[in-house]
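Predict structure. Chain length: 90.
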Amino acid sequence: MNALPAQEIKRRGIAAVDDVIDKGDVHVIRNNQPQYVVMSEERYEALIAAEQEAYYGRVMASLKEAKAGKVKKFKTSGDLLKAIEAGEDG
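Prediction complete.
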């Protein structure tokens, strides 16, 4: 984990990040705790693409279950909440 104190960024500016970003994501430490992560644009785009792919996969799986009749419908949100509380599988 690349760690960089926030105070170092305050003192040196973005040059402090530039010095370590080529080694990977940079965890900015504030009050002795990781508070932020700085990453390259390439890494950010990869994360966004992976998130969108996972979302698409979940939607497709849900549609497949609905078409297969594996979906239980409830008349009201209250009925749904009762089923959840009772631990019923849809």
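Summary: The chain has two domains: 2-39, 42-86.
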